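seq:
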Amino acid sequence: MSSQILLSGGDKWYSYSGEIFGDVSAPATIPMIKIDNTGLRDSMVVIQPFYSEPVTRANASQLGITVKLDNIIIFTSQRGADNNYGAVENTFNLFVPRNSKLEVISLNTSGNNTQERGVNLIGYYL
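struct:
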């Protein structure tokens, strides 16, 4: 699980989970990024989840992500069976107030718990 890393200019920060996968005993959710405090300035954050080819394309077997701010779910996305795997999911932007706790969590499924997934993000201080 990754945390926040400041860039040298001081006006941006980033975090990436690396490639994560479960096994047959993987839980329903897998933490990917956890930042306990995003800092003293508000941020615009670009979140870029990615997934490898699925083990199965059966209904209700798609991976997804949940984003939490201060323990409140503010975004959830789960891929549909027809989506293009092996590529980056739709990138999206998110406003993150200063001193927030930010978490990105993988939504796991029993059909695809060994599928690779991950997330990259970059925050721009406002």
